[in-house]
Amino acid sequence: MARLFIIFFLLPFCCAAQTAETFIQSGNAKAGQKNYNAAIADFTKAIQLDSKNGRTYFYRANAYNDIKDYPMAIQDYDRAIELDPKNPFAYFYRGNANNAQQKFADAITDITKAIALAPNADMYHYRANAKAGLGDHAGAVEDFTKAIALNPKDPSLYEYRGVAKSNLKDNEGAIEDYNIAAGLDPKNADLIFYRANAKGNVGDFKGAIADYTAATNMNTKNAEAFFYRGNAYGNLKNYNAAIADYKKVITLNPKMPNLYRYLANALSNNNDKKSALEYFGQAIKRDPNNAELYLFDGIVRYNLDDREGAMTDFDKSIDLKPSSEAYQNRADLKLSAKNYDESKQDADKAIELDAKNSYAYITRARAKLELKDTATALTDLNLGIKMNPYNDYSYVVLGNIATDRKDYATALKNYTQSLEIQAGNVETRLRRANIRLKAGDRVGALADFKKMADTGTSDDGFYIRMVRSMMKARFDGESLPILNALITKNPKVSTFYVGRGAAKQSLGDANGAILDYNAALKLDTASVDAYSNRASANLDLKDYTGALADISKAIKTNEGNEEPYLIRAKVRMAMKNYQGAVDDYSSVLFIDLDNTVVFAYRGLAQSYLANTDRMNADFNYALKLEPNNDEIYYLRGQARINTKDVTGACADFKKAVSLGSKAAVEEAKKYCK
Fold it and tell me: How far is C-alpha 94 from the geometric centre of its chain's CA atoms?
């Protein structure tokens, strides 16, 4: 942070005899000219003539401070304080000499004494620096706030408070401070760079890019700004721009950590396989014994699904110069090939070569999970997190483990932790949205879907998966603005029309929905989703014949897709073919046993057949898996009405309402009298 400029007090110079005061004035004059060694000599002579003057030790300490001889400075500050214990600047400057030597606790003690004597903004500023040095970022924020109260026009105070807030993961608060600082100091390239980092941390990649661009315009040699702008472009899937930035960094700082890894990933994701392979291929021709080049070429080939070529590259890299990173990447490759034993062995070797390679612990944990060694896998994950608590993927893996165990509360906690580290990771956010749905938090899930749509990724494949999740959750009109925006952005993706049709249908516009499903089928005549959803709209219009015809086409196109069976079950329920509905729900569960709500729908169908034991078994199992799902309680309430259990139905409808069900409100009024 900012360096303290020590103030020398210049006194009137008179042409008297060589007294102590004469040497003090001469020393101050030389210090003012930055001739610190000569100043020290004069102050020393003054001390020889008068060793009881605290000011002289103070001035000489300042001169020692300016030549960075901190031990001698502290020694003189000690004597100055001994002779004049009420001099706040002696404590203050000694505190900063301790700061310079990273003796942060001593610095805090000294500056606190200075503040007690005569507080000013600089004192709070430098005590904040010391607190930050000890990792007390909350204390630093508190001190910067006090400094701002005393000097609200100093942009550096807002800038550094923003840094402290960033260290506390309060990136939104940091951005607010950087905005104020930028208003006071608009040409500060470092400030704009810090703000860009904070924007990237909250997933505002477009805003981050704008700030990185401004920072590089002000400082064309800021390699980090180009590097992080490349990362932001990569998050938006703009790989051409990312590649250009990474290549720029190579000209400025070719030893930037992870530079070539990110370049390799961008090249391999750029849909230009030839160019991706050429870059490192040409580098290998120029330097055929460079192990790192084979490593990065292997990463490119791995990302391009050339697993055989990637394995050859990783093997060659290890033969030339065994490295933890090469073993780790080969372990990942073997893991993806389901060669779990060898993957674990490579991860072991990666850890042996670099015990601080946190990613290797994650890879080994994943291999152990596949080998059913869950206990030590969790140990590895926790070790990886301890070494690198900011590795967001560690928490994703923990979330995945919890999801597999159907421990949705723990899964949600871990996905949230991951997103606090990397807010712009849409894949993790989609996982969290789906878990929130399983936990009955539809409001939170919808917020995640909106955030994903706002992030700005150009990966239509991701958005297709997102839309399908929204459709599965049967969101009402809340999803319509998201889908309209997606269609405007890319009107040639059939799934977007299917999603919008489902939103329209949920709002009661079955005819408008059918128009969207027809548009989807024009773009993709084999769209199972479009046929299934058009069948659902026909069901709403009581066109059972048309609905069954569409379902037959859907099943013929892909008999392994659960959605057509779900729709046909609803058609059969409407036609009072309850056994046929039970059969269809059973088919869905054969395809996807994790579709918990289907157990509830099958339970409802069983209630019409008076199969009370089977009905109860289905509902009990569904609620065991998702105890906070309002739809399950609503459906059980309906089933209990069918079995004449009005008291139980009332309890279920009330529970559904408490969990947010709109459909259960009228039912509760009707049966809870």
Answer: 41
